[in-house]
Amino acid sequence: MAESDLEAAFLFHLRTLAPALEQCAAREYRFHPRRRWRFDFAWPPERVALECDGGQWAPRGGRHNTDQDREKLNEAARLGWRVLRFSSAMLSQDPAGCMDVLREALAVEMNSAGGGNIHGRGGSAWKNGMPPCWPGSSC
Questions:
Q1: Which residues are within 8 A (CB) of 55 and not within 5 positions of it... i.e. 6 or more apart?
Q2: What pTM value is reported for the model?
Q3: Could you read off the pLDDT of 19-48 as tens digits, one per residue?
Q4: Hey, which CATH number is domain 5-115, 2.60.120.20, 2.60.120.260, 3.40.960.10, 3.40.190.10?
Q5: How far is it, in rounded angstroms, from Cα 38 to Cα 70?
Q6: How far apart, in whole angstroms, are the C-alpha atoms of residue 139 and residue 132?
Q7: Which of 98, 100, 110, 113 is the most buried (most CB within 10 A)?
C-alpha cells in the first residue's frame, strides 16, 4: 500500500521524537483473522494501534467518518486493541504531545496490575521498563 503524506509525517515524528518505538512498530498491520483491515501502525504485543486520519475537511468527514471505518474500529476493540487516531492538525501542531500519548498507551501494558497485561494474557512483553525492541532489550 502507498504511504500517505500524513503517514509519512507521523513516521518522521516517530523517528525523530521516539526512535525506539519505531523499531517495534509494524506497518500496515493486518489485525483481523478474516477481514483485510489494516492499521497504519501497530505494536502487536501490546495491542496498541495508530491510525493517521486525513481528510477531515473532506465532504462528510472523508473516509474515516464512515460506517465501514466504525465497523473496523469496533471490531478492533472487540479483539482487545486500543486504537489511537491522530489528525494532520494534531501531528503538525503538537507532534511531541502525540508521541507522549503513544508512549503512555504502550506503557499501560507495563503498568497493569499483577505484572500481567490488561487483556489477561499473562506477563507483559515489556522488560525493565522498555518495550521488547528497544536497545538493550532481548529482541
A1: 61, 62, 63, 64
A2: 0.72
A3: 999 988 999 999 999 999 999 999 999 999
A4: 3.40.960.10
A5: 13
A6: 6
A7: 98
